[in-house]
Each structure stands twice: as C-alpha cells, then as structure tokens.
Design brief:
The structure holds two protein chains of two kinds.
Chain A: E1 16-17, E2 22-23, H1 27-53, H2 58-86, E3 88-91, E4 95-101, E5 104-111, E6 115-121, H3 124-128, E7 131-138, E8 145-151, H4 152-167
Antiparallel strand pairs in A: 2-3, 3-4, 4-5, 6-7, 7-8
Helix pairs in contact in A: 1-2
Chain B: E1 5-6, H1 12-35, H2 40-67, E2 70-73, E3 77-82, E4 88-93, E5 99-104, H3 106-110, E6 113-119, E7 128-135, H4 136-147, E8 157-161, H5 175-193, H6 197-208, H7 212-240, E9 244-248, E10 252-257, E11 262-268, E12 272-280, H8 281-285, E13 288-295, H9 306-310, E14 311-317, H10 318-328, H11 335-338, H12 346-373, H13 376-403, E15 405-409, E16 412-417, E17 421-428, E18 432-440, H14 441-446, E19 448-455, E20 461-468, H15 469-479, E21 488-489
Antiparallel strand pairs in B: 1-2, 2-3, 3-4, 5-6, 5-11, 6-7, 8-9, 9-10, 10-11, 12-13, 12-17, 13-14, 15-16, 16-17, 18-19, 19-20
Chain lengths: 174, 495
C-alpha cells in the first residue's frame, strides 16, 4: 500500500510524483528498530521493576508491561520495514527531493537556489549504525527537508555537494 | 544621519522609575490587603520596603542599561552595543534591513519618546535591533533613513484611512465572547484576593433567584457576552484608532495606528510576496474582510502581537478590502478576487462532513456514556444539544467545502480554504521556494492530496487543501515551471 507509487491519482491528467531515486541505507532498518526498542523498553522496564518490587500490585503492573511489550514487538518488526519502503531521497542539479512519513506521506521539493543551510546530524544510535541525517533548510519557516538514514560518508558527500551548489547562487534566497 | 556613536535617550530612567512604581503598586496593594488580616503594621512593614527595593533596582538597572548601550548608523551597517558584564554587539547590514517599526506606549508618549525595532527578517532575534527609547524625531529620522531606497521608483499616496463605522465589526469576532468569559473569571479572581468570591457568588444567586436556573444562566451568559462586546470595542479602539495605510515614495507600505500605544509599521515593498484576505465567520456574515500582507522579514512568533503586525487593513467592508488588496500588490484587481478558483473533488466534502460529525460525536460521547450509566437526564441533554450541534456542524462543513478552491492568476497562485476563518491567499509565484505534498491514508483512498507552497514570507507555507491528486500536482507544476517537472511520472497511473 505504501510501495513505489506517488499520490494516487483521480484526475484525468494522470500526472503524479514519481518516487525519489535513492532508497535510504539498508542499515536504517536496524537504526529505526533500535530507536523503537529503546522507546518501548523504557516503560516496560519501569513497570517490570515496580511489579517485582511491589507484590500486591504485581498483576496491575505486569499486565500493562506485557501489553506494551507486545505492541512494541509488532512495531519493531513492522514499522522499520514500512519506513524503509517509504523513505527515499534524491538530489539533482536543481532540487532536493524526498519522500518521508507513514500514515501521512510527505513529498518535499526544495530548489538548490533557495537553500540557506545544510547540516548533517548524527545521534548516538545513528553513529553506531554508521548513518547520518542531512537537514536542508530554506528561507521558509516550514520548508526544511530532512534526509534520514544515509550512509555517513554518503551524507557528507551530499552535504558538500549541496553546500557548493548553494554558494554558487547570489542573494539571500528569499 | 551622522555616523557617530549615539546614546539612547536619558529620559528612559524616569520612565523606568514610573513604570516600576506602577508595578510595585499593582503587586503591592493586593499583597498589603492580604497581609492586613494579620496586622496593618506587618503589611506596611513588608510591602513598603519591598516596593522601594523594586523601584530602586528597576531604575538602577535601566540606568546601567542606558549607560552601557550605544548605537551607530554607519554608511553600511547599523551597530548596537549593549551589556555591562557580558558585552553584546549586534550589527545589521543596512541593505538587508526590511522593516522599521516604531511604537510608543502611553508612558513613552508622555515623555515624547518611542522605541524602534529594526528588522532584517533573518535569524529571528539575531536579525533584529531594538533601540529604545529615543526621541520621536530620532525614531522618525531612523525610519526614513533606513528604509530610504531612493532608487525604487513610484509615487506615494494614502491607500486607506480609518472609518470609525468599522467598529461595528469588532464585536463580531471571536475575541468578544472570549473577553467576556475571561472578564467573569478575572472578577472572581480579584474578589478572591479580597476573600469575597463566596459573597459575590451568593449575591449574584440572590439577585437572580427569581428567574430560575435556566433564566439565571441565560442572564449571566448575556451579561458576559455584553461585557465581551464592550471589551472588544475597547480593544479595537486601542489597536486601530488613527489607522492609516500609506505608500511612501521610497517603496514602503506604512501602517500607523493606536489610541494609547501608537504604532508605526513599515514594510518594504520588495519584501511583499502576496496578500491574504481573511474573513472570519462573523465578519463574513456582515460582509467584512481583513487584509494581511504576506511579506518576508515580518515580526515572528517569538515576538508579540504578530497577527497585528501583518494586518494592513482591519475588518472593513468587502469592497474596500478587495481594493486595498489590489493596491498593495499594485494590480488593477485583487488576484484573490480575479482568479478563477477551481473547486475541489466531492471527496473533500465527505472529509469535512465526517470531521464535523465526528467532532459533535466526541462532544456528545461523555454525555451519552454518563447518561447510560447514571441518569436519563443526560441522555435528554445529549439529544437536545445534538439537534442544535449537528445542523450547525453540517452547515460549517458544507461551507468549508464551498470555500475550497485554487487557481493561478497571472503572477499569483491563489488558494482559499476555511469556514470559521476563511482565508484567500494570493502568493507571488516567484516567492514560492519549494513544495510539500502531503497525503494521509484517508486522503490516499479518496485520491486527494494537500499541496503546500513554501515561502520565506508570512507563515512559511500556504496550503491547497484536499485537492485531487493529479490537479494538485498540475497546478504546482504550472505555478513554478520546471521545479517539479523532473520528478513527475507523466504516464497513466496504475494505482
């Protein structure tokens, strides 16, 4: 359902956005899964510890822990794979183009001539997986384009290419 | 202006002293009254020294700030140095300056002073210099010098002047009920300080006891609404008294207004990326509309009073609003009006109807659940309110669908949406600096998308909501030729 297609079309023109050219790095699946594990593990651990310590309320603490753990397991198995299929990116001579999201999919296009800053971000987990996120901002308060889950070296390369392209354009890009 | 270092006006010190005295009185009196329960001597013993400390400290701080602040209007840069312990130096490139706002609160006005905000519209706080207070003449001189781009041609002229009759639109806004109910809350709060809230409530119940429960509630609600309406009139007068929208020869739009606190807001025309005609429901029913400018470098979220800064025309008769919108962008007819707006697919109406009915259901659900569990009275209350709420919600949803539309008119992309706050925005196509296309799972099933044109101006992005997927991409591609084209799949879709 979230495969390769752009926005489903109902008009006669039949024009739609094609998916950006590059998938994110395969390791992003592991990165996202780790994030989700950490996210779900925190409440589960707290509940289990409390459940072990507080005998009278054990059932009331362990039952929610089990529910959260089960939901977490489903999320960890399913979501990263889903995200991997959705998240794609592409940089051409004129624009940056990304697709992100899941329930809400988002296609973002920002022309190179309007880019103001290019940053690479690496969180602790992201570093372990050798990944980086490239963040491109324009003069719009709402126009930032993020490309998560790129191979670290690749991200540096992209950021450098974008920075060069940006410097070539005069003016304040508004 | 001379390129020497200058200082802010010395009279800032007495201004600060008076201001802090006011603060001390406002904070001190309730405290003193509260402490007077113990003994008058204790109350005065605590409050008076406290007040003296506040006033002296505030005045001293202002004196130090003044002592260590200086600014310079150089040929290329505006520089401001502040701070005693931590030296803070800020400098703006003059050719990047886009706005110069001059405000004066009543206290400053008594002393003939103003404060000036010079903005480049970049990097939020870092791109802004605040000079205050300076004399009114200096403020005016700064504004003229810094925004003078004599190269920019074009004659000046007045675009709109206040018609006091516009005040009739003030109570129609959502501000009125809000003010009314917060006034009631405020009254109870003040009464509470003096330990009188119980008495106030009893007194009110006594007065209204003849009317029964419903009658009493009705009287209270009407009283709150009337108070709110009066408050809205007052607020309108304070904001818009002496309103005048002018185009200055240098190519600047300037709004002047304010009863007690006077404001002068200047927007360089080069920064204008479009106009937005906003019609809140109450105003729209009365045939009124407001005009906001979509410009880069306006005061941003962190600063106060943002909405008012971009407003070029307060709610005024529709015909005038359309004329002002046209004049602002120098078009014979306002693009918001002239554009042919294509309607959106029927699926968008279904979405609005289900949001509306879902909202009503969410509101009724507690009543229904409690009604089933506790008492039938709540069930009756549920269906009675539902008979009112459902038609209203459906009407709003249908109206919201009718509002939807988008089109391209000359150099402008025009999009309209909203019912409670209907807004028609005309955005210059060259001001569009990217696209964001969004599709939820529900939209996907209905074949709809929401296309946002991102821009450096105004709120940062303007949306064409719930447009047919193909049509939405088409209009985006047409508005900024070439940007989306490489990413399009021209063929027929398979899914």
């Amino acid at each position: 359902m979230t495969g390769g297609a752009g926005p489903a079309t109902a008009s006669a023109s039949g024009v739609r956005l094609r998916p950006p050219r590059h998938p994110v790095d395969r390791r992003a699946v592991g990165w996202w899964a780790t994030n989700l594990v950490l996210l779900f593990a925190a409440p589960v651990v707290v509940l289990v510890v409390l459940g072990v310590l507080i005998a009278p309320a054990r059932l009331w603490l362990l039952a929610p822990a089990a529910v959260i753990a089960a939901a977490g397991l489903v999320a960890v198995v399913a979501l990263p794979r889903w995200w991997f299929r959705v998240h794609r990116w592409e940089v051409t001579d004129i624009a940056v183009y990304t697709r992100t999201g899941w329930f809400w999919q988002e296609w973002r296009v920002a022309p190179l001539s309007r880019i103001q800053t290019v940053d690479t971000r690496r969180g602790p987990v992201e570093q372990r997986f050798g990944l980086a996120t490239v963040v491109v901002t324009t003069a719009s308060a709402k126009g930032a384009v993020t490309m998560p889950g790129l191979d670290h070296a690749r991200a540096e390369e992209v950021a450098e290419q974008l920075t060069e392209a940006t410097q070539a354009v005069p003016g304040d890009a508004t | 202006m001379s390129p020497d270092w200058r200082r802010l006006d010395r009279r800032a010190v007495p201004v600060a002293a008076i201001f802090m005295l006011g603060v001390a009185v406002v904070a001190g009196v309730p405290t003193a009254v509260g402490l007077a329960d113990i003994s008058v001597a204790v109350a005065l013993g605590w409050v008076l020294p406290g007040a003296v400390v506040i006033v002296v400290a505030g005045t001293l701080a202002e004196w130090l700030r003044l002592r260590f602040s200086r600014y310079r209007i150089g040929p290329d840069r505006v520089e401001l140095h502040t701070g005693m312990l931590i030296r803070n130096r800020r400098s703006l490139q003059r050719d990047r300056i886009r706005t110069v706002d001059v405000t004066a609160n009543p206290l400053l006005r008594v002393f003939g002073l103003v404060s000036v905000r010079i903005g480049t519209g970049e990097h939020a706080e870092k791109g802004t210099v605040r000079l205050g207070p300076v004399t009114r003449a200096t403020g005016d001189e700064l504004r003229r010098t810094l925004l003078d781009r004599s190269a920019a041609a074009g004659a000046g002229g007045t675009l709109a002047v206040l018609d006091p009759a516009w005040i009739r639109y003030a109570p129609l806004s959502f501000v009125a009920p809000l003010l009314g109910f917060s006034a009631v809350g405020g009254l109870l709060n003040v009464a509470d300080w003096f330990g009188l809230s119980g008495g106030l409530v009893e007194w009110t119940i006594d007065r209204l006891s003849g009317l029964g429960v419903l009658g009493g509630i009705a009287v209270l609600v009407v009283a709150a609404l009337v108070t709110g309406a009066i408050g809205a009139l007052g607020l309108w007068a304070e904001r818009w008294w002496g309103y005048r929208l002018e185009r200055e020869p240098g190519g600047t739009l300037r709004v002047r207004r304010g009863l007690l606190t006077t404001r002068s807001i200047s927007v360089e025309e080069q920064r204008v990326r479009g106009v937005e005609v906003v019609e809140p429901l109450g105003n729209r029913l009365a045939g009124a509309a407001r005009v906001d400018v979509v410009a880069t470098g306006m005061a941003t979220g962190v600063e106060q009073d943002k909405a008012q800064h971009s407003t070029l025309l307060p709610p005024a008769p529709g015909a005038l609003a359309r004329r002002v919108a046209a004049d602002v962008v120098r078009e014979p007819v306002a693009p918001t009006e002239a554009a042919h707006l294509s309607p959106h697919p029927v699926a968008a109406r279904g979405r609005r109807l289900s949001w509306a009915l879902g909202g009503v259901l969410a509101g009724e659900l507690p009543l229904i659940v409690l009604g089933l569990l506790v008492t039938d009275v709540l069930l009756h209350l549920a269906w009675i309110t539902a008979t009112v709420a459902v038609p209203v919600a459906v009407a709003l949803a249908l109206d919201a669908y009718r509002s939807l539309g988008h089109g391209i008119h000359g150099e402008y992309l025009v999009a309209r949406s909203g019912s409670v706050r209907r807004s028609t925005v005309a955005l210059q196509r060259r001001g569009i600096i990217g696209w964001t296309v969004r599709q939820s799972l529900f939209q996907r099933r209905a074949g709809l998308i929401t296309v946002r044109a991102t821009t450096a101006a105004g709120s940062g992005a303007y949306a064409i909501r719930d447009v047919a997927a193909g049509a939405g991409i088409d209009v985006a591609d047409a508005a900024v030729p070439g940007l989306l084209t490489p990413f399009l799949d021209q063929g027929r879709t398979t899914g």
